[in-house]
Design a protein that fits this description.
Helices cover 22% and strands 28% of the residues. It is of the alpha+beta class. The chain folds into two domains: 204 residues, RepB DNA-primase, N-terminal domain (Alpha-Beta Plaits), CATH 3.30.70.1790; 45 residues. A six-stranded antiparallel beta sheet has the order 4-3-2-1-5-12. The protein has a four-stranded antiparallel beta sheet with strand order 6-11-10-15.
Length: 266
């Protein structure tokens, strides 16, 4: 939270989602809900929160004002997420860009296509590659008419792909903050003085650059917090952790665009 430049008088927004439910539906932001398990939206001023992490009790936004303990809920299978940009829980609430970031999920290949023909061409290309093995394929159509394609890899491939990704992109991410997750990495470029209107175009350019999760583009996006377990497989919990803090000086959006040679589609 200090790395993201949250101030002591600002509220930090958290959300808990049952990890098992994420196997069936993707989780985009604060506004989405899940049918299988309850989603708990939480908040507390940072000044009080910092003193007691990880024992702090947070309170859900509901009529009962239910008290929730993060470690207990994490052990019960709930993933712990946090809003990155500052302002609120909706895209329209965001007042300040704190970071540009990507979710590199090596467990799957995710891409967006305009037509089904493009999707089937992608599937044909993947099947022709002998080095790729997949457990399942999914195709979904979003409200914008785009086709969201996902191909899921077996677990044995992921560790090799993690090392390969870090080596391949070592120059582009050498000054970024890197968080390791069960299936890949969350990579952050901390931003100062960022323009809200440039956030989404930069996010989409980063997705194209690193072939990361195409859903991670909205302003109110939530991301997993280091220090809590990834619990999609309760028998093999994985501790989400920071493996590199990145440079101390924040980036400007222009520096990021120029440094990574990003092509923005405005």
């Amino acid at each position: 939270m200090k790395k993201l430049r949250y101030k002591k008088n600002e509220s930090v927004h958290f959300i808990l989602v049952h990890d098992a439910a994420l196997n069936n539906r993707s989780y985009n932001s604060f506004s989405n809900g899940l049918n299988h398990k309850p989603t708990l939206l939480l908040h507390k001023p940072l000044k009080r929160l910092e003193k007691r992490i990880p024992q702090s009790k947070l309170y859900a936004y509901n009529n009962k004002s239910e008290s929730v303990h993060l470690l207990t809920q994490n052990s019960n299978g709930y993933a712990v997420f946090m809003g990155i940009n500052y302002g609120g829980t909706k895209d329209s609430d965001i007042k300040e860009i704190r970071a540009q970031f990507i979710d590199v999920d090596l467990n799957k290949i995710s891409e967006r296509f305009n037509t089904l023909e493009e999707v089937w061409q992608k599937i044909k290309t993947l099947r022709a590659n002998p080095s790729e093995k997949f457990q399942s394929l999914t195709i979904k159509k979003n409200k914008q008419g785009e086709y969201l394609f996902s191909a899921y890899r077996p677990e044995r491939q992921i560790q090799k792909l993690k090392k390969k990704f870090l080596y391949k992109h070592r120059r582009q991410i050498r000054n970024a903050m890197i968080v390791e997750t069960n299936n890949g990495y969350h990579i952050y470029w901390i931003i100062t003085g960022g323009a809200i209107k440039k956030f989404v175009p930069i996010q989409k350019a980063l997705v194209r650059k690193f072939n990361s999760d195409p859903a991670v583009t909205n302003l109110a996006r939530v991301m997993r917090i280091p220090g809590f377990f990834h619990m999609k497989n309760p028998k093999r919990p994985f501790m989400v952790r920071v493996i590199r803090w990145g440079r101390k000086k924040p980036f400007s959006q222009e520096e990021l665009i120029n440094g990574l040679s990003l092509k923005l589609l405005l």
